[in-house]
Every structure is written in C-alpha cells, then in structure tokens.
Design brief:
By secondary structure, the protein is of the alpha/beta class.
C-alpha cells in the first residue's frame, strides 16, 4: 500500500507557495521592504484579488492581466483559475529567487524578473499596449509618498480606460500614516475606489481595494507627491 507519510499534509502557506516556503523566507530576508511580510497571501485573499479577473477584456481579443509583486505565485495560481483560456497573464516579480520559483511551477503565465516601475516597457516587450487588470501584492504601507505616487501613476497609465486595479492591504495598519496616504493616493488616481471587508482569518488580517476609472494626466506624472 502506498504511503502518504511525508507525513503531514501541507499547510495553507505551503500550498499557496507550491512548496516554496524556504524561497519566500529567503527573499523576505534579502529584501524585507520589497517583500513586505514573512507570510504569503493566503488562499482567501488570493481568491478575492483574483475575482476581478473573471470576465475581463472585450470580445474579439484576449484579456491582459498583470500581477505586480507576484512572489512565489500564491495569488498567481488564483488569477490563472479566473482568467479566460486565451488571456495573457504577466507576473512581475523583482526578486530573482521568487521569480525562478514561480517559473518552476509552470502555471502558464509569462514571468518577468523586473521592478514593477518598468511596467510600460514590460507590456511593450510582450506586444501589449494596455492591461485590462492589474493585481498588486506590493507592500504599499512600506513605501514613501513619492514611491506610492510613482507606482500608482505608472499603473493607472498602463490600464485601459475600462480596466481595474486591485491591491491588497493589511487591515491592522489601516490607520497608519502610510496606509492613509495610500488610500488618498488611490482616490487621487482613480475615479472609483472600493474597499472590501477585512479577512480576519488571514494572517495578518487583510483587505483589498478595487479601483476603476483611472484618471492620470501628464501633470500627474510629473507632480510633486509631497504637495
């Protein structure tokens, strides 16, 4: 009789990472400000982030879905489940170890090892003009004012006018200055910003923002984020 005793089933974190827990911890140790947490997104948060992907795009062309801060693929796998068969899914991860781990999972996505700030060039390299959906798992509360604004301006400009941007945020830090500033920057950048309820069972407790109607002008791109 076959044995299954490797002996305990994988916990949710291990399943989310596809067995790459050590790779994730190593990346967090190398670049704690880039990774932002010692725990990857759990299944419930991943599914909520991916929910906006279903039905994205327009008839006659494949949807373009971009994930920034993809890590080891905790959210990527949920995106793949929600995306249409012909969808173009681009996963952007800055840490080489995590990006290589994500490639090894063979989820059928285009994995790019790069800084998310280079998104326009990444899209161009893949023959894409704009994205229908951008999913962010970046650690926004660790970014300063200038970095928050720069990233959001880049992402909004990379979206189609009817596209959607969604981002994870940790609820326990909701009232910190950085978190409040992020909410303000979202409202400056998008015409519609919808916060979702907190997932209290997630570690740490998390929520998401769903943002539509990008409103970016040339003035926004050069604006002083400290004004």
């Amino acid at each position: 009789m076959a044995s299954h005793s490797a002996s305990h089933p994988q916990d949710p974190v291990q399943r989310a990472l596809g067995g790459g827990w050590g790779t994730f911890l190593a990346a967090a140790a190398r670049s704690p400000r880039d990774v932002g947490t010692l725990l990857p997104s759990g299944p419930e948060l991943a599914q909520r982030l991916a929910a906006v992907v279903a039905g994205a795009g327009q008839a006659g062309r494949p949807a373009v879905v971009v994930e920034v801060g993809a890590g080891g693929g905790a959210v990527t796998a949920a995106i793949v489940r929600e995306a249409g068969r012909d969808a173009v899914v681009i996963a952007v991860e800055k840490d080489p170890g995590l990006a290589e781990r994500l490639r090894s999972r063979e989820l059928g996505v285009r994995v790019v090892t790069a800084d998310a700030a280079t998104l326009p060039a990444i899209l161009a390299d893949h023959g894409v003009d704009r994205a229908d959906v951008i999913v962010s798992v970046l650690p926004w509360s660790l970014f300063g004012p200038r970095q928050q604004r720069e990233f959001l301006t880049i992402f909004a400009a990379a979206l189609r006018s009817d596209g959607v941007f969604t981002a994870a945020a940790y609820s326990l830090g909701y009232w910190t200055p950085a978190a409040r500033r992020f909410r303000c920057e979202l409202e400056r950048t998008f015409g519609e910003v919808l916060p979702t309820r907190t997932l209290w069972r997630h570690l740490p407790p998390a929520m998401t923002y769903v943002c539509r109607r990008p409103e970016v002008t040339d003035e926004d791109i050069t604006a002083d984020p400290n004004r």
